[in-house]
Amino acid sequence: MVALMNIMSMSYCAEKFTWKRKPKPDELPHIGTPSDIAWATWNRVGANVAGIKYLIVTQVINSDSREIFKSALRTLSPPQSEFKLWPGHEFSMDDNAGLAILGSPVGRWAGYFLVQHKDKLGGNRFISKVRVFLPPGASMPYLVFYVDPTPAQHAIAEDMVARKPEAEELAVTGRADSMASTRTVKKSDDGRNVVREHVVRDKF
Fold first, then answer.
1. Domain that holds residue 35
2. What whole-number distance in Å separates Cα of residue 112 and Cα of residue 203?
């Protein structure tokens, strides 16, 4: 498994904690995204690189991500409003709520991790579900993404493409100043591999 703690962008950290100004792109390291850092660590110390099963995010401090999680909780039956101790709440990637969590600011790295390194991971890997929970004594939620070694079936892939706009609507709940759009750029003949373009516009 790979676990990331307190995910923040390099640009944000440099501006807030180090230089107290917005950094220029050429001032930042080339390897700095959460997915890059996670892979560099896993590729170096993982005993079985292709055996990745869990991708974990601890102490989610990003407020936009937590709002997305809360929106997901409200889709449960009955609707929930608070994060729970382990095992917390589980969301399938067949559901809009699960897709929204995966696409959140602290969740999307998990998808990049699998897509960008599938040759080293032994082929296609996909996230089948995600669990949102609180550890004992914690105030911030944690995530566990479950990695499945089997590609999604054709019907599931088609259904995910069809329902993507609904997932985006959930993902921006509570952000009246946000706009999101998506389109399918390319899809394999069997429907298992899909390339999508996602555009999110924020007003600052």
1. 2-162
2. 26
C-alpha span between 22 and 150 (Å, rounded): 42
Token readout for 42 is 């896993």
Q: Full-prediction pTM beyond 0.85?
A: no
d(CA 86, CA 137): 11
Mean pLDDT on 1-26: 86
What does the pLDDT read at residue 198? 66
Which candidate, 147, 141, 110, places its Cα nearest to that of 6?
141
Look at residue 138 and tell me if it is in a domain. yes
Tokens of 19: 């230089």
Give dist(CA 107, CA 130) in Å, integer: 10
How far apart CA 24 and CA 26 sit, in angstroms, is 6
What is the distance between the alpha carbons of residues 194 and 157, in angstroms, rounded to a whole number?
A: 8
* 9 located within any domain: yes
Give the separation between CA 167 and CA 162, rounded to whole angstroms: 10
Q: Are 166 and 157 in contact (CB under 8 A)?
A: no
